[in-house]
Amino acid sequence: GEDVEQSLFLSVREGDSSVINCTYTDSSSTYLYWYKQEPGAGLQLLTYIFSNMDMKQDQRLTVLLNKKDKHLSLRIADTQTGDSAIYFCAESRGTNAGKSTFGDGTTLTVKP
Amino acid sequence: DAGVIQSPRHEVTEMGQEVTLRCKPISGHDYLFWYRQTMMRGLELLIYFNNNVPIDDSGMPEDRFSAKMPNASFSTLKIQPSEPRDSAVYFCASSFSGGATDTQYFGPGTRLTVL
């Protein structure tokens, strides 16, 4: 079945760049997502990328997709303490199946 | 729209008691998901519905768990009897099949503590 894996923890200093990595197994993945979960809250979509794209940039966020290696990354430039959260990678097939497969989440800690 | 609404936000109960968690999805969304999040097991999909019909309940841990969706604007997740290992944060999420992606919109969660 589908599987999404990501490292559990990342710690960076304020102002540095953060890179969170994810690998997935489903070659039929059509959409790949990054969700952010702040303490005490539910997950919220941060950004997504279609599988026919290599890169997507949105302000401080850059998503890179290597479809051949089934590898997705999220780069946060100029990381701030407010970026401390859990970041979830997810994929879906987009065939009206509705379901997405989520990774276990990477806890990003930003130190001042 | 108010987003996905869950109630209660916090629930503390004793082992053996029945617990009912409630969810109101975003109006117009046709998919509804129930997840459980713990430190040990991460985010687990328990069950999901499409147009009020359960599609996949393979993630429901055991017969003590049941979920219903009587109409498009309401769903419940019931645990009977509850056990301490059920302590977790339970999330409800909804999505719209007519959107550009399968983006899910999560509620704030219900933190369940079973003593």
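qc> The interface with chain A takes residues 4, 31, 33, 42-43, 45, 48, 50, 55-56, 91, 93, 95, 97, 101-109 of chain B (CB under 8 Å).
qc> done
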